[in-house]
Amino acid sequence: MVEPGDIATWAAAGVAVVAAGVAGWQTREARKSRIAAQTQATEAAKSREAAETQARAAEEQVALMRADRDERDAPEFSVSAVDAFTDDTNSFVAKVVLRMERGRALR
Which phi and psi angles does 104 have, rounded to 5°? Predict the structure, then answer.
């Protein structure tokens, strides 16, 4: 004959085994989650570094384009003294020619 205490003991042991199994499963799932979070953090750091590298490259490209534009658009002048003389009023006069050699017309 089975005693009521034996049934309670076996039931408690069964519950303990199930609880241990659930705890083990939760531990395994938590470990998987931790590893996934670490992998995601590593990938995020790599993405940030790649974005920073791209931003630096874009800044350098913009600087090169601006320098090229400024060089192309910048006017270039030549200055020459054409004549220097004393006029009728006994004043010294210098005639200077300023010529734009290249660049966009100025206003």
Answer: -75, 150
